[in-house]
Amino acid sequence: MSATADHAEERTNPAVRLGFQPEQVVQEIGYDDDVDQELRESIEDTIGSELMDEDYDDVADAVVLWFRDEDGDLTDALVDATTYIEEGGSILLLTPKTGRDGYVEPSDISEAATTAGLSASKSVSVGKDWSGSRLVTPKAAKSKK
Prior knowledge:
Order of helices and strands: HHEHEHEHEEH
Mean pLDDT: 87
Structural class: alpha/beta
Radius of gyration: 15 Å
Largest sheet: 5 strands, mixed
Number of strands: 5
Strand order of the largest sheet: 1-2-3-5-4
Strand content: 25-35%
Low-confidence stretches: 1-6, 140-145
């Protein structure tokens, strides 16, 4: 594949844009009827396998966390999600867009991520109803032993 084709896929494939790569193990938390099926399929196509469900009991390279305002405490959900990922892994936090049922304020996401020891590396629109925040362990925290 040429570099130009790679860049085109990055722009058009939301899973690639979000940093998913072939052969990654990705666990999905918070699945419900309202999730973006096209995004799920895009991630599965990119990684080459199905998303692991909440019962998966091994470590994953990344976690997809669907979270709505009524789902409870976001900080707790993020802390729980960090226990499922490899060191250096990422959490894709997906929340309903402004005006949708279950909308979560960006300030709440930022506060919860910071409290959970994560930093947001980028936020993106991932569908007509969902926004995504890619959360990672801060580099400074990784280097401490």
